[in-house]
Write a structure and sequence with these properties.
This protein has about 350 residues and is of the alpha/beta class. About 45% of the residues lie in helices and about 15% in strands. It contains 13 helices and ten strands. α7 links the parallel β6 and β7. The structure holds 1,3-dihydroxyacetonephosphate. 1,3-dihydroxyacetonephosphate (13P) binds next to α11.
């Protein structure tokens, strides 16, 4: 029997005013790629040091309701020996956990992917919960071409996302449901709109069929954008209009919070676009907030560069991104503030 009160209590914390979620759940290959671009070695120790830097940033708890962790981080400790999830809990930040096991090609749907990790998920969730996790994340990925995602890809990915969400809720864990329409490619914003509309429609149909309690989940979508190889970039006004239109058409008002991924947008862009949505739709039925990885972390990772002596500088850069996105989440961000910062 699903414990609805438990899910509601977690959600209540996730939607606190001014707050969003940090995605710090890069898998080992992904963080290794990010580190390598900055000439930082990726070892268990450098990953621990980097994540400790983020989690011990003073004042971050003012802007963060939760942080999504990768499995490795759940068992790592801060310099003083405190387990990292416990450190977050002490600061009033909820630990979450990425539970999917990445993507493989989807048979019979050339060009489409499907995410793995459902087998044994229920047991894994109980273990993560004992380690402090209160919410989870699962990402399905949709590459955009003239023919992708295929109808089979859209249907199969939606089914898997809904299965995941339902298993989470049975374990008393709030699922973050992440269908990411990729920015890679030279498609138009109209094509991204069309794909995102089909994807969200299928996802909510599947969530309904699997009896997922909409009040006990968070949606983590991509914004509607032109492909990154199709300049010029769309204005925040245009991104906000297109994104809000598909959300209104597909996301029931029962969903408490929509926390966007940044998906390769620059940190400024991700703040400007989120801000535009909150300015345009101040009384939206859902919270419109953030669950960024790169747009929150990039300046900090760059400032750190793997060196102990840069920790304070990196924390200042991280704090600044948190503050800017907290303002954007309430429609109070401006370009002038960005420059002043
Ligand atoms: P980005 O904000 O870097 O897109 O990452 C968000 C995320 O959690 C992807 O799963």
């Amino acid at each position: 029997m699903r414990n609805e009160a438990e899910l509601r209590a977690t959600i209540a914390k996730m939607v606190e005013p001014g707050k969003g979620v940090l995605a710090a759940d890069e898998s080992i290959p992904t963080i290794t790629k990010r580190f390598k671009a900055l000439n930082i070695e990726s070892t268990e120790e450098t990953r621990r040091a980097y994540r400790t830097l983020l989690f011990t940033t003073r004042g971050a708890e003012e802007y963060l309701s939760g942080i999504i962790l990768f499995e490795e981080t759940l068992t790592q400790k801060a310099d003083d020996g405190t387990p990292l999830p416990e450190l977050l809990i002490r600061h009033g930040v909820m630990p979450g956990i990425k539970v999917d096991k990445g993507t493989v090609p989807l048979p019979a749907a050339p060009g489409d992917l499907i995410t793995q990790g459902l087998d044994g998920l229920g047991e894994r969730l109980l273990q993560y919960k004992a380690q402090g996790a209160r919410f989870a994340k699962w990402r399905e990925v949709y590459g955009v071409t003239d023919v992708n995602p295929t109808p089979l890809g859209v249907a199969a990915n939606a089914e898997v996302l809904a299965r995941y969400a339902s298993i989470c809720q049975d374990a008393g864990i709030v699922p973050i449901v992440e269908p990411e329409v990729l920015i890679d490619g030279d498609h138009t914003i109209e094509r991204c709109y069309e794909v995102s509309d089909a994807v969200l429609h299928a996802v909510f149909d599947a969530l309904h069929r699997h009896r997922v309690m909409l009040e006990g989940m968070v949606l983590k979508p991509s914004m509607v954008l032109p492909g990154k190889d199709r300049p010029p970039k769309a204005s925040p006004q245009k991104v906000a209009e297109a994104t809000l239109q598909i959300l209104r058409r597909n996301v029931p008002a029962a969903v408490p919070s929509i926390n966007f991924l940044s998906g390769g947008q620059s940190p400024d862009e991700a703040s400007a676009n989120l801000n535009a949505m909150n300015v345009m739709y101040p009384h939206a039925p859902w919270v419109l907030s953030f669950s960024y990885a790169r747009a929150l972390q990039d300046p900090a990772m760059r400032a750190w560069a793997g060196r102990k002596e840069n920790v304070a500088l990196a924390q200042a850069a991280f704090y600044r991104r948190l503050k800017m996105n907290s303002l954007a989440r309430s429609g109070k961000w401006s370009e002038a503030m960005e420059r002043a910062a």
